[in-house]
Amino acid sequence: MIRTHIEPCSLNREEADALNRASGERYTQVMVFHWRTYRKKGHWLSQGGAEKWNDRLNADQPKLLHAHSVDAAQQGFSKAIKAECHESRESKRGSIINHAGPDS
Fold first, then answer.
1. What is d(CA 33, CA 29) in angstroms, rounded to the nearest whole number?
2. How many DSSP H helices and E strands does the chain contain?
3. CA–CA separation, 27 and 78 (whole Å)
4. In this predicted model, what pLDDT tens digit does every residue of 68-91 receive, in sequence order?
5. Is 23 within 8 Å of 65 (Cβ atoms)?
6. Distance (Å, whole) CA 44 – CA 35
7. What is the spatial distance between Cα 28 and Cα 50, in angstroms, rounded to a whole number?
8. Using an 8 Å Cβ cutoff, are 38 and 45 in contact?
9. What per-residue confidence (pLDDT) applies to 92?
10. What does the longest C-alpha to C-alpha distance in the chain come to?
11. Taking the CB of residue 35, how many other CB atoms lie within 10 A of it?
């Protein structure tokens, strides 16, 4: 059973939106860099490589997010890729099993 807890938030709407925007920008930067590198160079970028590149890119930017929030935003793309690859493999595997013969 999944339980959901709602916690009160003392941030005003503008601050929460700014944090959400900063997190989304980090995620998008990692995603764009990963696919651009893969498309142009044929190299599958590692999670650590993407994080290091993104940290260097944003070194002189104002720090809105805590370091762990930055890491979570950067790692979110890698987790999404792994989940998508896993789902794709499972669906292919399932289709082979489901359509193996007349008895299925």
1. 6
2. 3, 0
3. 10
4. 999 999 999 989 988 777 666 566
5. yes
6. 8
7. 12
8. yes
9. 61
10. 63
11. 13
